[in-house]
Design brief:
The chain is mainly alpha-helical. The protein has a single domain, classed as Fic-like fold. Helices cover 56% and strands 5% of the residues. The chain has 11 helices and 4 strands, in the order E-E-H-H-H-H-H-E-E-H-H-H-H-H-H. Strands 1-2-4-3 form a 4-stranded mixed sheet, with no helix packed on it. Helix 4 runs antiparallel to helix 5 and helix 10 runs antiparallel to helix 11. It starts with a strand and ends with a helix. GO terms for molecular function: ATP binding.
Length: 337
């Protein structure tokens, strides 16, 4: 029997036939690397992304995209956009009218704000601060279990109470609507296994990043993509996993040399393509950590999202450089006149 949700979309009964079975899954991937195949388009995008830091440097030599200065207005705006987009994806968004209050560093809600909105504003502010904390951190190992626990604690310390920064203690299932209206029910790793799986994921990701720094045997970009898929399959916390996964994706990309977040947020790209985000993630987790797993849909999506992030970031940098150049010319003209 079909039912109707608040938005007028017909929803079929929850699907139980989704190919997931995490009851006896291995703590590490069983498929021999790689766990995916790359399309020609994805390979082309990876090649282009490898060159973009030089393109950015040529366009604005004095601009340092890796510097996250909380005193810089443009940086504050980009991080605020990250937080707002990421929260909107989870249905926890607030009006874009509040973005400028973050940019101007005035985020105290007024007296007329109701309790629910006040709590959401507080969460946005805490996540905003956590982005700056993470992106400015310089840990000896790029990713650790303790780093993730601390990030979650910082993000939700004022709104989740004792749950913030603590591994889930009961089952967590994900529900999302497909394009055809089907409500998909997705299990995650059990609470008893969550810590073990998360620790293993952190160690594996850190090891791949270390190898990538010293040789061409691995890829930080592709490792970042794998991490996001794996983290969301584990779903280690009772709530906030999606927002934390996107923060950590931005963090890992920055540590891998993909310095676009200061100019344009990855979260906005995901927001603009969230149907593809959920569908490729769901498809890639069908046989997660089993010999027949295939992360290809997710990997191609993730690389495409980062590529789109760079394109939007570069357009913004180029336009700002052109504007600055034109303004300089006008000043010289006025002075000589």
């Amino acid at each position: 029997m079909l039912t109707e949700d608040k938005g007028g979309v017909e929803i079929r009964p929850v699907s139980q036939d989704n190919g997931f079975n995490f009851n006896s899954v291995a703590v590490n991937p069983l498929r021999i690397d790689p766990r995916y195949s790359l399309s020609i388009q994805t390979i082309g995008r990876i090649e282009r992304l490898a060159k973009v830091r030089f393109v950015t440097a040529e366009t604005t030599p004095s601009f340092d995209p890796a510097k996250f200065d909380k005193n810089d207005e443009d940086t504050r705006r980009s991080i605020a956009l990250s937080v707002f987009a990421s929260s909107e994806i989870e249905g926890e968004g607030i009006s874009a009218d509040y973005i400028e209050t973050f940019v101007t560093a005035h985020t105290e809600p007024g007296e007329m704000v109701d309790a629910e909105l006040r709590e959401r504003i507080q969460t946005h502010r805490d996540i905003y601060d956590t982005y700056f904390w993470a992106l400015n951190s310089q840990p000896e190992q790029v990713l650790t279990y303790d780093f993730i626990i601390e990030a979650h604690r910082r993000m939700f310390k004022n709104t989740m109470g004792q749950v913030a920064g603590r591994i889930k203690d009961k089952e967590v299932r994900i529900h999302w609507h497909r394009r055809d209206g089907l409500l998909v029910d997705v299990p995650t790793i059990s609470s008893e296994q969550a810590e073990e799986f998360l620790r293993s994921l952190c160690d594996r990701t850190a090891r791949i990043f270390m190898i990538a720094k010293e040789s061409a045997e691995t890829s930080m970009l592709l490792s970042s993509a794998e991490f996001a898929c794996d983290f969301l399959a584990i779903h280690p916390f009772l709530d906030g996993n999606g927002r934390l996964a996107r923060l950590l994706s931005t963090y890992l990309l920055e540590k891998g040399g993909y310095h676009f977040a200061r100019v344009y947020p990855l979260d906005q790209i995901v927001m603009d393509s969230r149907a593809d985000y959920y569908e490729t993630l769901n498809a890639s987790q069908q046989y997660w950590h089993l010999p027949q797993e295939d992360l290809t849909p997710w990997i191609n999506y993730f690389v495409g999202a980062v590529f789109e992030q760079w394109e939007r970031a570069f357009r913004r940098i180029r336009n700002q450089a052109a504007y600055a150049k034109e303004s300089s010319k006008n000043k010289l003209y006025t002075k000589s006149y």
